[in-house]
Design a protein that fits this description.
With 266 residues, this protein is of the alpha/beta class. It is 31% helix and 23% strand. It has one domain: 3-Layer(aba) Sandwich (Rossmann fold), CATH 3.40.50. The chain has a seven-stranded mixed β-sheet with strand order 6-5-4-7-8-10-9, sandwiched between helices. A hairpin with a 6-residue loop joins β2 and β3. The longest helix is centred in the last third of the chain and has 12 residues. It starts with 14 loop residues before the first strand and ends with a helix.
């Protein structure tokens, strides 16, 4: 069962790699899977929630710069580097051990013009940089859940501040967490209600999308057309994800609504 990804590795915390049925997995001091990679297709996204997080591509816009907090097994970093040539990434990872294992065991490329992995504190980086990203990835769990510093109202305010005017944050939450609604309300507060959720299992990970500005076109027909276009070049079930977005968010027969838009239309 996938539950926790990662934030911080302490000096005495074991970092282990396992293999089963052609899949290599990263573990932090437990059997819990933090990241997974199919060895015969190392740049594909093995876990459903990582594919769901890529649904930021459905909402259009001129995206150029991704900022990611936490590296893990580098699933998203590798995928974006391999399949999204117009996107540049900065990834903050506090653990040198994780960076070394991601490169030696999970095929993370070396830094280049489109990928910069920085050994450093992601919280501090966010606090020191405003309006630097079009997309912000947050996947910040440890063995005890979301660290308190990564789910406070101030943290989500800082996330919003790090984004450009048309930027969006994509955060991975655990859907059955007893504080899920609290975290979601805090995100809605920081992003003025411009939020969509995309559950990926029952129970399971939920990708939450939070926007600085509402996307210009949330019609389901447009999203389905965009999904079909993306599926020509990506091995991601974008069409299925569009239907899940319609199922789990305020919607009519022909469009999605942000929570604030739904409230004003009711």
């Amino acid at each position: 069962m996938l539950r926790f990804t990662r934030h911080k590795v302490t000096a005495d915390e074991a970092v282990d790699v396992s293999e089963s049925n052609g899949v290599r997995a990263l573990h932090l001091g437990s059997v819990t899977i933090q990241s997974a990679m199919r060895i015969k297709d190392p740049f594909a996204l093995e876990l459903t929630y990582t594919r769901a997080m890529m649904c930021f591509l459905l909402f259009g816009g001129k995206l150029q710069q991704i900022l990611a907090i936490g590296l893990g097994g580098a699933s998203l970093a590798k995928y974006v580097h391999a399949y999204c040539p117009d996107l540049h990434q900065t990834v903050l990872e506090i653990s040198p051990k994780i960076i070394q294992i991601a490169r030696s065991q999970f095929y993370l490329p070396d830094n280049d013009a489109r990928l910069e992995v920085i050994e450093g504190d992601g919280l501090r980086y966010l606090a020191d940089h405003s309006a630097v990203a079009d997309v912000l990835f947050i996947d910040a769990f440890d063995g005890n859940g979301i660290p308190p510093d990564f789910c406070s109202p101030d943290f989500f305010d800082t996330c919003a501040n790090s984004l450009n005017a048309d930027g969006l944050m994509v955060i991975n939450l655990w859907g059955s967490d007893k504080k899920f609604d609290v975290y979601l309300q805090r995100i809605e507060q920081s992003f003025a209600g411009k939020v969509l959720i995309l559950p990926t299992g029952k129970p399971g990970n939920t990708a939450v999308f939070a926007f600085k500005r509402e996307p210009t076109d949330l019609r389901l027909a447009s999203l389905r057309n965009r999904a079909k276009e993306l599926e020509r070049t990506h091995k991601i079930e974008f069409l299925q994800f569009v239907e899940k977005l319609a199922e789990h968010n305020p919607s009519s027969s022909n469009r999605l609504f942000m929570s604030n838009a739904a409230a004003t239309s009711s």
